[in-house]
Amino acid sequence: MMINRSGGRACREITPEAAAALVKSGDWLDYGATFNQPDAFDRALAARKDALYDVSIRNCLSMRPRATLEADPERRHFAFYNWHFSGYDRKKHDAGLCHYIPCHLGEIPDYYRRFIERVDIAILKAAPMDAEGYFNLGPVSIWHPAVVERATTLILEITPDMPPVVGTHVRVHRDQVDYLIQGDDTPMPELPNAEASEVDRAVARLIATEIEDGACLQVGIGGMPNAVTTLLLESNVKDLGVHTEMLNDGLIELYRAGRVSGGRKATDQGLVTYSFCLGSRASYDTLRHNDDFLCRPVDDTNMPDIIARNDRVVAINNTTQLDLQGQAASESDGHRHISGTGGQSQFVRGAYASKGGKSFICLASTYERHGSRRSRIVLDLTPGNIVTTPRSDQMFVVTEYGMVNLKGRSVPERARAIIGLAHPDYREELAREARARRIVPAHFL
């Protein structure tokens, strides 16, 4: 399906420099997300920074440095606003050059259609035009259809390495495009898979025992969720479905191994449903023209009511800190923003509402900072920390020391169960603090 946009556009090919010359001071630009973010245009825009001021750019999960950010270290010309941080974006936020936009990722298309007032120019990477006159935006749909609809001017940066994929809204006809620029032959960025630690594997073993034949998987980013897919490859679980926001290497390996059929899904039966892919070159090649996969906008993958249409949804996501009430802080370290809400809370709710569904929030019990070990399970969240998953939504919580289901448990019962998931070195202190704050009865041991 093509993206709807008023027709009759010129679709003229121009140079990146000519495209950058279209930008005026005060404009709002949209760079899309991940490897749809432009490079040739970005470099050309950075080169004319001294002629511009107050240019605002929305982007998400930068996979390589942004020339406009690097050229403007004092933020005199460009302001970046980001829907979800990569490691690069986090560093720029620490330097005061990038700001987060609070969101549920699945709601962002609606933000563009209802609340965001201006998209003066959208610049997205795309594969070369096919014989029918369509450009393919590759395995990144997310909110791009809404951006294309709203953009006053649409520029596509043509990238030979972009793999054309099958999707509901990944194709844009030339009549919907204002300008084309030629990108370079830089390979698509890959997301390396960190080696799973023993803690990751211990958590994964607990979660894997809860996954049944026919389960429908959503897996978040990180070592622990990836460790789960590795264990499933070693198990006898079969006939799995996939309905996920992010498609990673682990899920694609399950597909290649014949464990994913999608036959028991109610939505997109027989297909792997995703909104964007980040992983290895092998994964991108697997998606190329592969009609076993369906790339959908994020409001089709992340809204809880859509997730819940499938039975036995299993949602597996990370957090970085958990308090004794069950609140999970997954996106910040105090007032320092590190990632984003993403789709975590939407999949937590969607999985719970699914018939036979299960949501897992996983974390290592401790972490190291400045040579000192600290507990991720705490009485109170770090001041300024953002709650990503509220206590009322929390279902299964997993560390290397066990797994508990918090649904239906009182505050004292929750605290007892969560303390049991902490590293043994911290349990006594946590129990003492819980008694002092009357979270648990005085006789609690």
From TrEMBL:
Pfam family, one: AcetylCoA_hyd_C
Keyword Protein transport in annotation: no
InterPro entries linked: AcetylCoA_hyd_C, AcetylCoA_hyd_C_sf, ActCoA_hydro, ActCoA_hydro_N, NagB/RpiA_transferase-like
Residues of the Acetyl-CoA hydrolase/transferase N-terminal domain: 14-189
Boundaries of every Acetyl-CoA hydrolase/transferase C-terminal domain copy: 279-434
Superkingdom to which the source organism belongs: Bacteria
UniProt keyword Hydrolase present: yes
GO molecular function, one term: hydrolase activity
Alphabetical UniProt keywords: Hydrolase, Transferase
Family, similarity comment: Belongs to the acetyl-CoA hydrolase/transferase family.
Protein name in the entry: Acetyl-CoA hydrolase/transferase C-terminal domain-containing protein
Organism: Sediminicoccus rosea
